[in-house]
Every structure is written in structure tokens, then in C-alpha cells.
Amino acid sequence: MKITFIKQDGSRNEADANVGDRLLEVGQAAGMPLEGTCEGQMACSTCHVIVGKDWFGKLPAASEDEEDMLDLAADVHATSRLSCQILLSEDLDGMEVYIPRESHNMQDD
Ligand code: FES
Q1: Among 2, 36, 65, 90, which residue's CB has the most CB atoms within a 10 Å radius?
Q2: How many Å apart are CA 63 and CA 70, to the nearest integer?
Q3: CB-neighbour burial class of residue 45 (10 A; exposed 0-12, middle 13-18, buried 19+)
Q4: Which atom of ligand 1 lies closest to the CA of 40?
């Protein structure tokens, strides 16, 4: 399956992925600036991505913990998610994922 990552400059990067992969690791393997500092513990929000509108509804809903963490992320949109919480399923083949403006860890500022 394929996942397309779109950066702020509009550049598109098509990544190969497998069912069951975590979106965070797929993005990192594709060279996207997703730090994933807490490695999926929902304690950092550096894995924040903005899911393409057409794809957002195909994802399982975010947990309350994920929503809380997203509240702290920069450049949050209605379709924002933590990529460490998204496991790829077959119907996400072709999904478009946007990289937010500030994807580094802001908590130290
Ligand atoms: Fe830290 Fe996703 S990797 S919240």
C-alpha cells in the first residue's frame, strides 16, 4: 500500500507501507520530520500530522488521551491526529497526510 506525505512546501512523498504499520514509522522511514520523541506513549505530540479530509473519516476515532495531547500541538487542524496512534489498515491505501508547520517539540520553549 502507499501513503503520500505532503510537506508545507507542497512537496509530495509517496511511501511504501504495509497493513499493520504505524503511520509514525512509515513517515520517519520516508524522511518526514516526525520526531516521535515519546515513541507512542502519547506524551509528546511531536508525531502530529494532519490527515487528508477524505481519509480522516476512515480512521478509528482518537482516544481522549490523544485529543488532550493534540490540544498542545502546534498548527492543529480539525483532522489532526497523532501518527503514533494510527495503525494502517487496507482501506487507508493511498491516504494523504500533511506535515504540520511546527513538527518539533515545543514543550521546552
Ligand atoms: Fe509521542 Fe506520538 S510519539 S505522542
Answers
A1: 36
A2: 11
A3: buried
A4: 3
Q: Which residue has the cell 516521535?
A: 36
Per residue in 37-75, pLDDT tens?
999 999 999 999 999 999 999 999 999 999 999 999 999
Extents of the domains making up the chain: 2-103
pTM score above 0.85? yes
Between the CA of 55 and the centroid of ligand 1 the distance, in Å, is 20
Atom 3 (ligand 1) nearest CA: 36
CATH class of 2-103: alpha beta
CA distances from 105 to 47, 72, 86, 89 (A): 9, 10, 20, 28
